[in-house]
Amino acid sequence: MDLYSFIPSLTDPKHSVLDEFRELNLKEPIESHSRIVSHQGKKEDFSSLGLSTENAMELAKLHMLTETKLGATTIEEYFSPSFFKTNFWFFWATMFAFEKWHSVVEVKRYMERFMHLIGGLNRLKGILHTEYNQYDSLILPLITWLKDNKVVFDLGTTVTDIDFDFSNEEKTVTAIHCKNHEKNEMISVKKEDLVLFTNGSMTQNTTRGDMDHPAKINRSDDKGCFSVWKKIAVKSSDFGHPEVFCSDIDKTKWLSFTVTLKDDDIVFPYLLDLTGDQPGMGGLVTIKDSSWFMSWVVPKQPHFINQPDNVKVLWAYALNLDVAGDCIPKTMSDCTGQEMFEELLYHMGLQDKAAEILSHTINVIPSMMPYITSQFMPRIAGDRPAVVPAGSQNFGFIGQYAEVPQDCVFTVEYSIRTARVAVYDLMKLGKEVDPVYPSQYDLRVLTNAAKTCLNLDKVPLQDIPLGKLLQNTELAALLMS
Ligand SMILES: Cc1cc2nc3c(=O)[nH]c(=O)nc-3n(C[C@H](O)[C@H](O)[C@H](O)COP(=O)(O)OP(=O)(O)OC[C@H]3O[C@@H](n4cnc5c(N)ncnc54)[C@H](O)[C@@H]3O)c2cc1C
């Protein structure tokens, strides 16, 4: 938000992107009235998180344990099996794309980072959205501002390696090797220059299909920035462990697909009726009994700048790609765009209208992302390098695979924060990046989260041994209010 407070809006240069964003979310806040469906378009009860006392206590303990103690524990190793049947897990897994084999430390970080939102978790309250898709609403204004400030974007250039001088216990980049439109080049780097390296990308090696073709997974050993990270990681023990994140595609992939409809008078009116949510104001809807574990989002329309009025766009994704669908007897990985959409229509309760809907469907674009959840893989301290490694003179790691204590990955904010930390530090600006919002240290937030997880308006302190100790304390007042 700091960054976007001075990036001019594309539509009204007197306004910042942050102003625009704030106004939109005040005017059209997200609040879901239908978070879960099942049985082909039947709304499910989503009023509570469905946690037992045992499950709530496991969450409380997770909050207390240190990251060092948790180490590379997976979510499945940490929680008891009943946890995975709760609404909490359905909401959590689908909102953030967590799989059971991912790091429980990342669950802890998310829980603490967004603890103030747990009360509204089932209704997605507090989730913010942009006017258009995030490229048009966030990236485009930023690129425009950077170009106006004479920043040069050199597209078609692939970095292949980075050379360092490690003398005097310092780390100084001396050269960048790259391929510029297939021509090998070397850029010499001086100590006074600054090199910021995005050492991994969740969209690396993404492939796309279309209406009639699946998106074929790319299992190539050429993993773009991950490969560069691998090359430099062997040069210094301070540069982290890329293999932890990018070695097991089957644990880090998912598929999403975007549906484009023209002159639709079935799908959008039906979904409005089913969910009670205006496009853009409902957020993610998860299909509880979908074998693919599929969810959809109806964003605000138009979703793209210049999208014609009679064109509508929606998005869906799934986490189980290698099992057969419930309507289409194929794995999601093998499905064409049309087949994925047919499976979705079945679960929405629109199977009988599929033929007519497909006649208004311009395209369905599946997108296979082999590394989309690689940042959630179990890790220990040191697997992610520090943003500015010890002794670095002119080099920083930025993005989702550099370490920022307390912050959580799979967010734009995390990448921006790493870049700010790198620039403030390496340019010796003497400025501090705003700390991560410490909501978990606010007693009001904690007590509210406890009440939500226990599904209680008031915590019956008299029934628990700790209650006596807390009698007449401020904490008791908060828990009982
Ligand atoms: C479907 C989806 C939904 C998301 N939803 C949200 C959300 O709701 N909220 C949120 O905050 N975040 C969300 N995210 C996450 C967010 O988009 C990312 O965390 C963020 O964009 C990462 O930015 P980055 O600059 O670190 O990396 P990237 O944007 O991945 O940039 C890495 C760049 O490096 C380039 N590159 C790779 N290899 C090389 C090479 N060898 N040489 C030169 N260049 C190279 C790539 O082309 C790419 O441009 C979502 C992401 C996806 C995919």
Question: What would your notes on this structure say?
Answer:
- The protein is α+β, with helices and mostly antiparallel strands and 481 residues long.
- It folds into 3 domains: 31-128 and 442-481, no CATH class; 152-249 and 376-426, FAD/NAD(P)-binding domain (3-Layer(bba) Sandwich), CATH 3.50.50.60; 255-369, 2-Layer Sandwich (D-Amino Acid Oxidase, Chain A, domain 2), CATH 3.30.9.
- It contains 17 helices and 13 strands.
- It has helices at residues 17-27, 53-64, 67-70, 75-78, 87-96, 104-113, 134-148, 225-233, 243-246, 249-252, 267-275, 337-348, 354-359, 412-426, 443-454, 465-470, 474-480, and strands at 36-38, 42-43, 157-165, 172-180, 183-188, 195-198, 207-208, 254-262, 284-287, 294-297, 311-318, 361-369, 395-398.
- The strands form 3 sheets. An 8-stranded mixed sheet has the order 2-1-9-10-11-8-12-7, with helices on both faces. Strands 3-4-5 form a 3-stranded antiparallel sheet. Strands 6-13 form a two-stranded parallel ribbon.
- β9 and β10 (294-297) form a beta hairpin.
- The two termini are 33 Å apart.
- Flavin-adenine dinucleotide binds at residues 158-159, 198, 201-203, 224-225, 228, 256, 372, 399-400, 410-413, 415.
Cofactors and ligands: flavin-adenine dinucleotide
Radius of gyration: 24 Å
**Can you say what the CATH homologous superfamily of the largest domain is?**
FAD/NAD(P)-binding domain
Q: In whole angstroms, how far apart are the ends?
A: 33 Å
* Spatial strand order of the main sheet: 2-1-9-10-11-8-12-7
Succession of helices and strands = HEEHHHHHHEEEEEHHHEHEEEHHEEHHHH
Q: Round the mean pLDDT to the nearest integer and report it.
A: 95
Q: Remind me, CATH topology of the largest domain? A: FAD/NAD(P)-binding domain
Number of helices: 17
